[in-house]
Automatic annotation (TrEMBL):
This is CMP/dCMP-type deaminase domain-containing protein. Pfam families: Inv-AAD. InterPro entries: CMP_dCMP_dom, Cytidine_deaminase-like. One of its GO terms (molecular function) is diaminohydroxyphosphoribosylaminopyrimidine deaminase activity. Gene3D superfamilies: Cytidine Deaminase, domain 2. Residues 18-143 form the CMP/dCMP-type deaminase domain.
Amino acid sequence: MLAGDAPQGMEGDSGPTSTDGKFMNLAIAEALKSTPVESAYCVGAILVSPSGAIISSGFSRELPGNTHAEQCALLKLHDRKVAVGATMYSTMEPCSVRLSGNAPCAQSIVDAGIARVVVGVMEPPDLVVCDGVRILREGGVKVDRLTGFEERCLAPNEHILKHS
């Protein structure tokens, strides 16, 4: 078993589930599809139904318009109602500020009725100060940080982090 295959630990509102590691690994695979740019992180997201089925996925800049991973996962839904009660796995804390004019991902997650967000790392302060977890929790979303995945979640972002 590779490091990061199973939940190492959890910080947040609730304990890890037996599938958190599996879905975070899939989110990391999505992040690796992102084309690196100097002004944005490479993030991956997986949206999972309450029954445990993957209902969408996304990665940074997958769709036109300077899109973020969580935004792509939501935009690709045929019926946004399926997001209600779901869990979003994201390699990085969902954004609270968008310089592009798009809606912040944290607010979009709240608006979609997603019940839980599991993040691999908090957003580093290299580009903006992120307050996504606070927005999610104030919006009634449970937030957990899955520990043991930090290195793999940050790896697609060496193009930004090496300059820090």
